[in-house]
Amino acid sequence: MENAIETLGLTKLYGQARGIQNLDLQVRQGEVFGFLGPNGASKTTTIRLLLNLLQPTRGSAMIMGMDVAKQSVDVRRVCGVVSGEPAFFDSLSGRAHLAMMQSYHAKGGSRTEELAERLSFDLDRPVRSYSHGNKQKLAIIQALSHQPQLLILDEPTGGLDPLVQREFYKILAEEKARGVTVFFSSHVLSEVERICDRVGIIREGELVALLDVNDLHKQQVRHMEVTLNRDVDVSEFQLEGVEIVHCEGHHIELKVSGGLGALLQHLAALPVEDIVFPEASLEDTFTEFYSGRGGDE
Question: Which candidate, 122, 132, 78, places its Cα nearest to that of 104?
Fold first, then answer.
């Protein structure tokens, strides 16, 4: 199967600063690929290189078998993009802005009404009046409405309320079902686990891991705070995959990795008054995943 995205030695240097270094990446046609990394890891730089908005210092990138530098116009015809900082014609209505942008595509505008309804978006207000969330909806409709073969999405759910996010995930699942490839940059582990097939993790401009999303789940690290109705006995929390961070009085803080079954079963037998168990952070998982592996791979 031909790759939807393929890079070879892709590098972008900013003087003495490193943007992206020797990126060799293959994204398969029809998959949803998550592109993860802490802030400043050069995720957005990579996307700009793929779209020929930046020129590489060296290396090359191909989209749908086309060289992004030599066939930039053809590449743009097959891509739908939600950028990290989308720009619009503020003086136009949402409908007029979309009509202008979609006029460049043979199938432009064919899904505008459908997508606007599904995302609860008012097409007829001036763009300048839209909130951040509504501008994000506009960017999503613009990216999807010409039925692209490849979606490149840079933090696309920022500003969307939970109900709209859920509908957006449904739309992406439908796109995948019809064979569309999705390149999805995100820092939210729960949405990556929900929609992605594989993930690439980038650190300091270098791709340091490619793994199936199920393997990412196994590496997930979360912090848990437990309050009992009596003093904590630390020996009760010496379990596999559980690290004690701090313990004082009735309160204990834990770092939890891997499966939760044994820990939850154990907690059910204790006099628990409260549990705080926030969503895993990418930074914690990332740090844990690479701790003790040399640090520079």
Answer: 78
Query: Residue 132: CB partners within 8 Å, gap ≥ 6?
Result: 158, 159
Express each pLDDT in 157-206 by its tens digit: 988 999 999 999 999 999 999 999 999 998 777 788 889 999 998 888 88
In contact, 256 and 224? CB cutoff 8 Å = yes
Q: For 216-225, how does the pLDDT look when each residue is reduced to its tens digit (9 = 90+)?
A: 766 778 889 9
In this structure, what token pair is assigned to residue 103?
A: 């006029």
The b/e string for 231-257 (b: 16+ C-beta within 10 A; e otherwise) is ebeeeebeeeebeeeebeeeebebebb
pTM of the predicted protein model: 0.81
Domains belonging to the chain, first-starting first, are 3-213 (3.40.50.300), 221-279 (3.30.70)
**Cα–Cα distance measured from residue 56 to residue 19, given in angstroms and rounded to the nearest whole number:** 10
What does the DSSP 8-state code read for residue 161?
Answer: -
Q: Tell whether the torsion through CA atoms of 109, 114, 120 and 123 is positive or negative.
A: positive
List, as one string, the DSSP characters of 81-134: EE-SS----TTSBHHHHHHHHHTTSTTTTTTHHHHHHHTT--TTSBGGG--HHH
